[in-house]
């Protein structure tokens, strides 16, 4: 795309003549990181929490950027001969420029946007499975990775920056996808990363304590999520437009949607798609879903109440694409599960071991309640053992809360490290343990995560349930600033297999 085409919606009166018509040059890329600047690329200066792109304008210019997009021109080199565009919000500009540069790929896809504190990853996996099962190739952008068909791209963020996002959507189109399922974080909504995505259907799971290190208050956190259902849906050119909302969640009941959006509710209370759990064990669950026109029963190869919420939300979302509720539930009979989401560790051991990503108070409570419910309904005498930690450099308020939940819903708890990052691991463990009642004895501290997993597996007896919570699908641990390979799943399987070697 030529520079004049890319900037046709912008005021380019700040262009500086260089003796030639540089507006006719082909743009090689859009970037906000000076390490990615190439000759004839566009550099957008973004103010971040740690760095300010305006401090690197000289480097971008010397690397060959043919246009600089800034909020303040003061750091632009005085001899810079090309286009300088000064705007009040360069984050929004980055999103718009990326979308234009990749020729609006979301216009060519049926786009699902999934937001909420818990369940985003599971729902994107489930949507992908349902649509692929019905031969509708679907790309996914989320916490675990980006993928379409057999192609997989690694990621470190739930929702990537706009350049990566728009580039990936274009990759999906090139690979023959007809739909995309995108995890939309509150950070992404607050930072205009998805503003140019034309969503067809948006899904709200729940809202619980998380990310207050960034948002400061739950109201601010909620307002960021709200944008997907109002601001983003007002901007989309798709029609019809749908919102799928969990009304068992108090924030879901408060959620507003744009006036031209069709809102569908789901939950165990009265709603458009009301479900009931009929039977549940550690292998499968029988459910009933009731609508105005039909009641459908299905036996699903999953366990956990929160998993059923995610399946129902996905099936309702798939209806907006044209796949019936019955067809979606049929597809789910062949579902292999979501990595790190109540994922069973298969081994020769008779111990029942799950790995789960639960890293918030609500998520931990949900998964432990689900395990307790299954134990009760199955009339098992199993004890429940939980090992978990909390991430460093993140919201500290949830640490003691998670201890109380784990102690209440488990027979024994081991508190350990998660991703301590630059915090002292022992200090994080101590802050978690402050949530236990004075004199409480059903817990211990084991700071090293592998040793903690080994310890809790050794303590459990055959038939007992062990929950390894917090990291789920992650195959690394961040200690200091170093990222080391670590997989809860692999570590658990190693020690379980050693018991029978």
Structure description:
- This protein is of the alpha/beta class.
- It has 17 helices and 23 strands.
- The strands form 4 sheets. An 11-stranded mixed beta sheet has the order 8-7-6-9-5-10-11-12-13-14-15, sandwiched between helices.
- Helix 4 crosses helix 12.
- The chain starts with a helix and ends with a helix.
- The model has no long low-confidence stretch (mean pLDDT 93).
Secondary structure elements and pairings:
Elements: H1 3-6, E1 30-31, E2 42-44, H2 57-62, E3 67-70, E4 83-86, H3 90-101, E5 110-115, H4 120-133, E6 138-141, E7 146-148, E8 151-153, H5 162-174, E9 179-183, H6 186-190, E10 201-204, H7 212-215, H8 218-226, H9 231-235, E11 241-246, H10 250-254, E12 261-267, E13 273-280, E14 285-290, E15 295-300, H11 305-321, H12 325-332, E16 343-344, E17 352-356, H13 361-377, E18 384-388, H14 398-409, E19 412-415, H15 425-433, E20 443-445, H16 449-459, E21 465-469, E22 476-479, E23 482-485, H17 488-498
Parallel strand pairs: 1-2, 2-3, 3-4, 5-9, 5-10, 6-9, 10-11, 11-12, 12-13, 17-21, 18-19, 18-21, 19-20
Antiparallel strand pairs: 6-7, 7-8, 13-14, 14-15, 16-17, 22-23
Helix pairs in contact: 3-5, 4-11, 4-12, 11-12, 13-14, 14-15, 16-17
Features:
501 residues; alpha/beta; Udp-n-acetylmuramoylalanyl-d-glutamate--2,6- Diaminopimelate Ligase, Chain: A, domain 1; Protein-Tyrosine Phosphatase, Chain A; 11-stranded mixed β-sheet; 6-stranded mixed β-sheet; 32% helix
